[in-house]
Specification:
The protein is α/β, with parallel strands linked by helices. Helix content is 33%, strand content 24%.
């Protein structure tokens, strides 16, 4: 029954099934860490974002990153919510003044999954097969690996894309394995694509919790559920992205992972949107140097790509 009493914590999220699942996971983890919150309550508030409303064109055409975060961040700044739950791969490289990513949940598998009618591997797709995707990064890597493929825009949430595939609008699509697992749809994957074949988006599989920088009580609550390994790797990846000034208009991929308890290995890649040119580099170093590793990797990729690589129309 609705109550006029404000909940102890108001969590803002997009309204898609995946976003709501991620918000619910956040609530469960907070209640497990702070049982006293149960009495006052944690409210989940769905907020429609610009990215949810735009369905007739790709995200890169619609304006790049921030399309799935702007309205949530406005709600934070207006104090309508206390906490925003984001897929970190949707986050712009820089946060608005006054807001901070205060914690990240344990990262789910960052790899992409192939959903296909009949094929078990990317290499098994018939020549000139049609692949639907909304991600410029996936499109560029697909075109780089298989120039024969026809890549078409595929917008919508996970269920919508799966329905479009079932309707025969494409022969295959790629989706984040993390999203499929969180929705209980992992069995729909024909294959899990190795990172040596398709490198994931920066921060893919990671959930970030954003709050106001001066909101000490909320920052303290979420700090208790922060996954240190995830935060370290995602900070390294986003440091690389910041050097490259990455946006949805630029195909950039990157993944940092732990090799043992204290060493990080990281790979990054930049591509032309048509897949005709790709540059890749790697780094390895200590946990404490994660962000420096990311920045250094970004600088090397810029050098390898050369002047003008990131300019529109290049």
């Amino acid at each position: 029954m609705p109550s006029t009493r404000q909940a102890a914590l108001r969590i803002g999220t997009r309204g898609s099934p995946l976003a709501l699942a991620q918000a619910d996971e956040t609530r469960r983890r907070l209640l497990a860490a702070h049982p006293a919150l149960a009495a006052a309550g944690i409210e989940i508030i769905a907020i429609k974002t610009t990215g949810d409303r735009i369905q007739d064109r790709t995200l890169s055409e619609a304006g790049g990153k921030g399309l799935f975060t702007k309205e949530l961040e406005e709600a934070l700044l207006d104090r309508r919510i206390d906490l925003a739950v984001h897929s970190m791969k949707d986050m712009p490289t820089w946060e608005p003044p006054g807001l901070v990513i205060g914690a990240m949940l344990p990262r789910e598998d960052p790899r992409d999954a192939l959903i296909a009618n009949g094929a078990k591997r990317l290499l098994d797709l018939p020549r000139n097969a049609v692949v639907g995707t909304a991600a410029l990064r996936r499109e560029a890597q697909l075109r780089h690996l298989r120039p024969d493929l026809k890549v078409i825009p595929f917008r919508g949430n996970v269920e919508t894309r799966l329905r479009k595939l079932a309707e025969g609008r494409a022969d295959a699509t790629l989706l984040a394995l993390a999203g499929l697992k969180r929705l209980g749809l992992e069995a729909r994957a024909a294959a899990i694509i190795g990172v040596d074949e398709i490198l994931p988006a920066v921060a893919q599989g990671a959930i970030g919790l954003e709050c106001r920088g001066n909101d000490a009580p909320t920052r303290s609550l979420i700090a208790s559920i922060d996954d240190r390994d995830t935060s370290t790797c995602v900070r390294a990846e986003r440091a690389m992205l910041a050097v490259l000034d990455g946006s949805c208009r630029t195909p950039i991929a990157g993944l940092a992972q732990f090799k043992g308890p204290s060493q990080i290995v990281m790979r990054g890649m930049v591509l032309k949107p048509d897949g005709s040119e790709a540059h890749e580099a790697a780094r390895e170093g200590a946990r404490g140097d994660a962000e420096a590793l990311g920045r250094d990797l970004g600088e090397e990729l810029k050098r390898r790509a050369g002047p003008g690589f990131f300019s529109p129309g290049h």
